[in-house]
Every structure is written in C-alpha cells, then in structure tokens.
Amino acid sequence: MKVKDAMVGSPVTCSPEANLGVAAELLWNRNCGILPIVNPERKVVGVMTDRDMCIALGTRNQLPGQILVNEVMTNKVHSCQAEDDVHTALEIMAKGKVRRLPVLNSQGVLQGILSMDDVVLHSEGAGQF
What we know:
Blueprint: H1 20-30, E1 34-38, E2 44-49, H2 50-59, H3 69-72, H4 86-96, E3 100-104, E4 110-115, H5 116-122
Antiparallel strand pairs: 1-2, 3-4
C-alpha cells in the first residue's frame, strides 16, 4: 500500500507566528493531534503536537496567547512522500519515534498527513503489513 492510499489529504496547518491559543483552537476544531507548521509557500518548517503544546503551557507561567508556535514547534521534521510504500513510512516513524508524518512532495510542500491510525484503518487485514 502506498502512503497516498492512507494519508489525510487536507491537513490543517498553522504559521510559526501564530500563538498557542490559535493553534489549540485549530487542533480542537479539526480533532487532530499534530499541526504542520508551514511558511507562505506551504513548505513545512516544523511540527507541533498536542503534547508539545500541553508541556509548553504546563511549564511556563504564560497564557496561550503569549506563547508563539515557533517557540514550541519541533524544527526536526520526519516526513515521507505520497508515493512511498507504507512500510517505508512506518520505518521512518519508528526511527524518529513519532506516530504521525507530514507527507511532502519533492519540493517540500505539504501534501497530507499519515498517522499510524491511518495505516491501520486502511489495511485489509494482517497481510498488508
């Protein structure tokens, strides 16, 4: 199975200049656990998970509106491409110790998100793995 067969094709994104209040609302409204952080060209410059946000809010004495996404986001992005085999994506997840990957094209532009849950939901039984 290819990544494109299981990925979510229209992920919600956020800019690095947004604050955590805006980011929290995006995560809540779209019921997701990761925000790809993109520049104006939709190139991924980082990612932020709901866990990253919770730790930042729990360890700083600041309101969500006072903390910018670029202060919390992870700059090291583990990613895959739509044409990759799901096994390749799962190996990237395992090596990076992450559960979700931005799916990028060859220019680094965001195409989607692949999560472990997506892979499981789109498999047709244990033979797919």
